[in-house]
Amino acid sequence: MKTKICFLGLCGLAILGSLTVHAQDKLYDDTFPLEDVRLLEGPFQHARDLNIKVLLKYDPDRLLAPYRKEAGLSPKKESYPNWEGLDGHIGGHYLSAMAMNYAATGNQECKTRMDYMVDEVEKCQEANARNHPEWGVGYAGGVPDSNTLWSAFKKGDFSIYNTSWAPFYNLHKMYAGLRDAWLYGNNEKARKLFLKFCDWGIDVTAGLSEEQMQAMLHMEHGGMPESFADAYQMTGEGKYLEAAKRYAHRALLNPLSEGIDNLDNKHANTQIPKFVGFERIAAWSGDEKFARAGHFFWETVTSNRSLAFGGNSRKEHFPSKAASIDYINEDDGPESCNSYNMLKLTEDLFRESPEARYADYYERTLYNHILSTQHPEHGGYVYFTPARPRHYRVYSAPNEAMWCCVGTGMENHGKYNQFIYTHSGNSLYLNLFIASELNWKEKGVKIMQETDFPLEEQTRLTITEGSARFILRVRYPGWVKDGALKITINGSNVKYKQQPSSYIAIDRKWQQGDIVEISLPMHNTVEQLPNVPQYMAFMHGPVLLSAVSGTEDLKGLIADDSRFGQYPSGERLPINEAPILIEDDLSSIEDKLQPVEGKPLNFRLNVNMKNAVETNLQPFYTIHNARYMMYWLTLTSDGYKTYVDSLASIEKEKLALEKRTIDYVATGEQQPESDHYMKNSKSKTGNNRDEFWRDARDGGYFSYSMSTGSERDLELIVRYWGFEWGSRKFDIYIDDQKLVTEDTSGSSNINRFKDVGYAIPDEMIRGKDKVRVRFQTTPGGSTSPVYFVRIARSGQ
Questions:
Q1: Model-level pTM?
Q2: Is 654 exposed, middle or buried (0-12, 13-18, 19+ CB in 10 A)?
Q3: 580 and 465, same structural domain?
Q4: Are residues 481 and 567 in the same domain?
Q5: Which residue has the higher pLDDT, 436 or 639?
Q6: For position 93, what pLDDT does the model report?
Q7: Mean pLDDT score of the chain, rounded to an integer?
Q8: In the sheet where 753-760 sits, what is the strand order?
Q9: Which of 384, 487, 579, 650 is most buried by a 10 A CB count?
C-alpha cells in the first residue's frame, strides 16, 4: 500500500498553509475539487438542486441553539426538537452540507450560512474556554449537559457518559462540519477551530488509561479516528496520528485485521465509521494492521452482508446468517447512514488501490440506495428502506424530523460529482457514467460527458477545450458481459484485453474535438437475498428493478416530530399473502423479463405468480409514495404448498400480537432503548440465538418509559429464555408500584423462548399515557435475560 508520510514531511506543511491550492486537494489527493466537476441535466443534478432548496428551509440559529446553550450563551432562537438527548448532531451535518453545496454550485447563500455557522461556533468555542477552563478549552459541542458530563469524564468517571446518548458520535458531526467548511469551502477559520477541537479531544482523554479508553469506545463514537487522522494530514503533527490510533476500537480492529468477521448482531453504523478511520490511519501511517482491517471489513460487508441495492443492516444491526430472514420479516431495513459511510470507505480504499470493484459497488449503492432516499418532489429524506414485501418508506419534512439519516441525507446529494472522475499521476479515471463536465485545470483541458444513463446504454466524452497527453482509464463495469463493451475514439474502435470489473487504459495525446463513445450493454440478472436464497431480486445492469404493489395505508408517509416517526407505521401486510413466483427452472428466471416498449428500464415479469400483483418492474429509485416488491419469494411447484401452509400459521400468530401491541422495546438494542429513555444500574446486554437481551444483577435494575395509549385492560408481555441456571428472582414495577415478583429459575428447562403475560391492574395506569416499567433485582440476585417488553391489549 502507498505510504504518504514523506509527502507531509517534505512539502506538506507549505502546501497546507496556502489557499492557492484547493483545500479538497489537501486531504483527498485523487479527487477533483467539487467546483471543477459540473453536473449536467439529469437525475443527480435534479436531486442536488432540490436538496439545496430543502436545506435553505432550515434555520441555522435553531441548529446552533444547543451549542450556544452548552457554552453558556443565550440561544438566538429555540432549538429544534432533535432526538431528545442528541441535540446538536444535525448542526454539524448542516455545516458540511452548506460547504459541499457551495463548492459544487457556487451558491452564495450556502456560503453565507457556512461562514455564519463557523463564526458562531467560534463564539461558542471561546465561551467554553472562559466558562469551563478545567475541561472546555477548544470544545465546540452541543451535547446536552456538557459541563456535568465532560468534567466527570475527564476524571475517569463514566457514570454520566454511559447514560448519555453517544456523546462522541454527536461531537463528531461538528468535527466533520468544521473540517468540511475548510475542505470544501476554503474557510481558514474553520480549520483553526477544527484543530482546537481536536486538541480538546486529546486533552479530555489524556488522563485515561488504555483500558478506560477501550471501555469508552464501546459506545458509538462516529468517525473520531478519522477526524484525528485528517488533523494529522492537515498539519503533519504526530500527536494527531497518535490520537487517531488511541481512539481506535480494538474490539473491531484486532479481529477484522486478522480476517475474522465478528460483526453478527453488532450495530452496523456504529462500526462503519470506525473503519473509515482505520483506513485513513493506514494511508498516513503505513500500518498494515489498520489497512487489513479496512479492506476485510469492506469485503465482508459488500460481499456477504449487503442487499441488492447496496444497503446493509436490519433493525440497525448486522444479522447473523440464521437471522437474515429478518430482512423479510422486519420493516426497519437498511438505514441510509450505513450507505453514506460505506461510500466514504469505498472512496478511501479506491484512493489507495483504484480497482473497478470499488467503483462497481459505489455505482450500485449510489443509484439504488442514495438516490432513492430523496423524495423527488418535496425532497424529504429516508431513514429505513424496508426489503419486507409490500411495505414502504417514510420521508422526513424540513424543520421536523431530526434523525441521523436526515443529517447524512443533507450531505448525500451535495457531492454526487465527487467520484465521477478521479486522477492519479498522469491517469484520469472515468468511474461513473453521469452527465457532467470536468475542468482538469492541471492539464488545461475540459471534458464533457453526455449521457442519459441508465436510461440509455452509452455515454459520450468530448474534449471541449485544450490538449494534453494523459491516460484515460475507462471503467469496464462488472455488469457488462465479457467482450460486450465497445469503445470508439473519433469513430475508430479501441482494442482491449481486459475483462469485466476492470479499467481500460487509453494513452494518447488528446485534442480539442476528440470524441470517445462508450457502449454499455446491460442485461438482466438475479440476486439472492444473503443467506435466504429463495428470495430473489431482479437487476438490469447495476439497476435494481422493483414493482409497485399498492398505495393502501401509508400511515406516517411524511414523518412528524414524534420520537418514532422514522418507522413506517402502516399495517404490515402478511408475508404469506405476498406474491410468490412459481418457477421450476430457476437457472434462467431472469429471461422471463420482457422489456416494455417505449419505457426504458421497465419490464414485464412473465412468471407464474401466486397472490399476483401488477408486474411492471421499474427502477427502485423511481418508486415513491407506494408499497413495493423488492425481493420475491421464488419456489418450485413442489415446494410451494408446504411452505405457504407453514408460513401462514406463523404469520397469523405474529400479526395478531402486533395488532394488540401498544408499545414495544427490543431490549439490548441501542436505538429502541434510547427511544424509550432507558435507565439502568448494574445491567448488561448480550445476544442469544440472534435475539438481544438485557439483565440486571445484585440490586441493579433497568427501566423504560412506555406508552399505554391511555387505554385500560392491558398486559405486560415479557420474553424470556426457557432454560435458566441459578437464582432468577426479581420484581417488576409499573412506575413505583410492584406489579409482580417473578421467579424464572429453571422454570421450564426447555431450550426455547417463552412469552409471559402479566395483567396490569387498571388503577396502575388510570389517567396515564406513559408509565415506567422497571425490572428490579435484590442484593445478590439477578433478573432473567429479558428479550423484549411489550405493553399490549389483553388477549383474553
A1: 0.86
A2: middle
A3: no
A4: no
A5: 436
A6: 98
A7: 93
A8: 661-665, 788-793, 714-721, 753-760
A9: 384
